[in-house]
Amino acid sequence: MAASLSSSVASLQSSLGLLDSSISILDSGVSDFPRLCKVLQTTRHFELLPEPTLREAQQSLLDEITPSIAHLLSLASSHVEKLSRREQGLRAKCELQEGRLYSNENRQSSNRTQNGALGQRASGGSTAARAAELRRLVQKKERLKYTVERLELQSRQRERQLRKSMAFQ
After folding, report:
1. Dihedral sign, CA of 20, 26, 28, 31?
2. pLDDT attached to residue 43
3. CA distances from 128 to 136, 139, 143 (A)
4. For residue range 57-74, what is the model confidence (pLDDT) as tens digits?
5. What does the alpha-carbon distance between residue 169 and residue 167 come to, in Å, rounded to a whole number?
6. Buried (b) or exposed (e) across 118-128, using 16+ Cβ within 10 A?
7. Host H or E run for residue 10
8. What stretches of 31-124 show up as alpha helix (H) in DSSP?
9. Rounded to an integer, what distance in angstroms lies between the CA atom of residue 80 and that of residue 84?
């Protein structure tokens, strides 16, 4: 019985050694398990969508952006037209001012010439009265010319405003 008992103890010790060996092998295999779980976990970096869903998204984006783009284009074109009309107005004003400047220079030179000619012909009180009347008529003519130019400019501006109001309707 002692022999069978010692044989049993030896077999049990051998089983315990085998069990310890198995536990150490399992422990070494399982110790890396949390890292393996993290590595083997699937992560979706890109989500694949069906083509009809993608087309719907593109169309909705296009429907959302198109009115804004059209509105911005209309604002830009109206602003460009406004700047063009302003440029035309400034050019007309510049031409009018140049004409006034040129006519003023001509008037001054013609007045000097007329005054010189009148001074040579002046022989009495009637020529002085005539010279004063002539100066008054020249001044009146210049005032009327200025008034006509101003009215023409106002007429052009009103035409532009009318075209502008017709363009917006």
Report:
1. negative
2. 72
3. 12, 16, 23
4. 999 999 999 999 999 999
5. 6
6. beeeeeeeeee
7. helix 2-30
8. 33-40, 51-121
9. 6
